[in-house]
Model the fold of this input.
Amino acid sequence: MTLGLAIALLLTQGDHLSFEAASVHRVQQVVMDAEGARDKIERTPSTLTMRNVTLAACVRWAYGLQSFQVTGPGWTESDRYDIIAKAASATEPQLRLMLRTLLDERRRKVTISASHPGCGK
Done:
């Protein structure tokens, strides 16, 4: 199963909670330590902060999946992002649902932009 198909199938399940605000930025210079690139995921009842994460890591966290359950093009494991998202107050399962919604919203925007140059900006 491809990453896109897995996301599409999983998005049809469950509630569609969303963050009050979210910032997603591609990491231009990946921070490396002795073990290589490290991602960091921190959560509070009102904030989800994901630093230096791949798209595959976001999908795994959002859906509670293992590495072998998420496949996709090479960039889904190499390109890295910083995500900071705010919620009024949420449990971890609610934050995961909110991240699913965010991933779906971003996927739709990318699909529209790729299909119709000049749209979705």
Q: What stands out?
A: Strands lie at 21-26, 32-33, 36-37, 40-44, 47-53, 81-86.
